[in-house]
Amino acid sequence: MIVHTTITVPLASALAFAQEPENFSQWAAGLARSLRRTERGWIADTPAGEAVVRFSAPNEHGVLDHWVRVAGRPEIYVPLRMIANGDGTEVELILYRQPEMSDADFEHDAELVRRDLATLKQVLEGRQ
């Protein structure tokens, strides 16, 4: 499932903010309320335990992918893109349904992503 929003901020500005893991706490509630840098990398507390989070390298191409691994579970790949659209930015996150996830759980995850992207839009547009 692709979750999408349009932000009325130029790509360069949106990307500069969103690609910094330190800024995730301002918009990515599902991941970042507990996100912290450690000697093991970025760590987040989840209901399933600590998760190690890897981020794609900062780049000018709008790639904001990240990978989340909780001990004893397969790593989850989260493709996230920012794409220039005139003076604005399209943001798209591909949400993969995880094995054994119920329809209700998948829709709940999708709603959390929608909220996070709405918060990102609000934060970025409020910074203008």
Automatic annotation (TrEMBL):
It comes from Methylobacterium variabile. SUPFAM superfamilies: Bet v1-like (SSF55961). It comes from the Bacteria. This is Polyketide cyclase.
